[in-house]
Amino acid sequence: MPIILALISIANISLCGLPFLRGFYSKDLILEIVIMGGPRVGLFVIMILATFLTVIYSCRLSFLVGLNKPKSEVIYLISEGDNLMLIGAAILLPFTLIGGIYLS
Questions:
Q1: CA–CA distance, 98 with 102 (Å, rounded to integer)
Q2: pLDDT digits (tens, 9 = 90+) for 32-84
Q3: Which residues contact 14 (CB under 8 A, 6 or more apart)?
Q4: pTM greater than 0.85
Q5: What is the Cα–Cα distance from 55 to 15, expressed in whole angstroms?
Q6: Which of 19, 74, 88, 17 lies closest to 48 in space, CA to CA?
Q7: Is 7 helix (H, G, I), strand (E, B) or coil?
Q8: Longest dimension (CA), the chain
Q9: For residues 28 and 14, is the Cβ–Cβ distance under 8 A?
Q10: 10 Å Cβ neighbour count for 54?
Q11: DSSP letter assigned to residue 17
């Protein structure tokens, strides 16, 4: 499933906040508002922890999809057979990559 793995990896990189992607600017804006809001140390710690946990579960998802080993549950079809889903994801992909330019 190389196409699905590539799409999930790009989405996860954006979600983790890699600079110059769309997710970076939204996370940066939220963290900047919290920092400039005053001395709310507890809220700041929770925001940093939530960002860290987002990176962890995103990396775990990419790893498990790339591993391509089925679990013990019954799997009916493991393939990239649904072209409609792939087309929809491919249409949204450029907005993830270049969308950060418009948010800056």
A1: 8
A2: 887 787 778 888 888 889 888 988 988 888 887 777 666 655 555 556 667 88
A3: 21, 22, 23, 24, 96, 97
A4: no
A5: 8
A6: 17
A7: helix
A8: 53
A9: no
A10: 16
A11: T
